Amino acid sequence: MKNEWPLWEVFIRGQHGLSHRHVGSLHAPDAEMAIKNARDVYTRRNEGVSIWVVEANQISASSPSDKGPLYEPSESKVYRHPTFFDIPDEVGAM
Amino acid sequence: MTFDAAMYQFLLRMGDNTLILGHRVSEWCGHAPVLEEDIALANTALDLIGQTQMWLGLAAEIEDKGQSADDLAFLRDAWDFRNLLLCEIPNEDFGRTLMRQFLFDTWHSIQLGHLTKSSDERVAAIAAKASKEAAYHLERSADTVVGLGDGTEESHNRMQAALDYLWPYVGEMFQSDDVDVVLAKAGVAPDPASLREEYDAVLLRVLSEATLTIPDSRFAHKGGRSGAMHTEHLGHLLTQMQWLQRAYPGCQW
């Protein structure tokens, strides 16, 4: 296991104006090779115009067991959705 | 030598290089040391085979005997092939495969760069497409040669052994003959000998970064691009590559 290359998470922007999207992960010895590997593994069918790679252990993630305190409180707060306003006709489609 | 005869030989040389090396690289498919390299090598092989279709397609057109690129690839015998000997050398280990790729990619990207300015529009168009692929191949193989050369003791030794083994096959790329004279005169392709300086500069830069020593010899095996004599390895490669068309002539799928 010690000889394994580190894991990298790969983000690709599909076209100009869109955000980078997580597409998967791969192994590589360094960031430069991770970008090259990402090019070869994830853009073979013309999927992207830009690649980001981040070493997986540099990503901090929320804990699945905190799901209750993190997300449930917002379930009962419907007033946070902008659905309580009458929109004047002249504004047109929103 | 007529212009068309020289042109046909030149196109076979370009197309056979990419065909034979492409087949060699494809032998790694499913066997590379890690998944990422497996896919990268398969991509390189596919690029090379794609370029072969263009070069041999144009060769067949100029030959004008009703043959297709497929006929040229699958129905010629070893003595008809015009690839550099370097391209047919067996893969051996990953180190030799990548060193062979680097030695070829360096020449290939320089050659294609010149060909984009060819006086023949068809050649220039093929080179324009292929040179982008070759530039990436070179970036990747050079990086890997540096990574492995300047890596562990074992990887360094393997890369040095690969360089020592392949070095005598480098000189053939720069040997000019009467085909080259005709094409250089017409502005279709550069004189091979004129590319050596540029080639050596790239080699010196990358191989010193890789802490590898370039052998002190200019001895060169030859006979591939002229077709005079290939290594024993080409025939074995062809039995694998061509067996289906040989066993089932005209078979399509």
CATH topology of the domain at 1-59 in chain A: Ubiquitin-like (UB roll)
Helix content of chain B: 55-70%
What's the N-to-C terminus distance of chain A? 54 Å
In oligomeric terms, what are we looking at? heterodimer
Overall geometry of chain B comes to globular
Q: Specify Rg of chain A, calculated over alpha carbons.
A: 20 Å
- Number of discrete helical segments of chain A: 2
From N to C, what is the helix and strand string of chain B?
Answer: HHHHHHHHHH
Mean model confidence by pLDDT of chain A: 89
* Unreliable parts of chain A: none
Q: How many helices of chain B?
A: 10
Report the strand count of chain B.
0
CATH class categorisation of chain B: Mainly Alpha
Q: CATH homologous superfamily name of chain B?
A: Ferritin, core subunit, four-helix bundle
Topology:
The complex is a heterodimer of chains A (94) and B (253).
Chain A (H helix, E strand, L loop, with lengths): L6 E7 L6 E8 L3 H12 L7 E6 L11 H5 L23
Chain B lengths: L2 H24 L8 H29 L5 H7 L9 H4 L5 H22 L5 H29 L3 H14 L11 H8 L10 H14 L22 H16 L6
Helix pairs in contact in B: 1-2, 1-8, 2-3, 2-6, 5-6, 5-7, 5-9
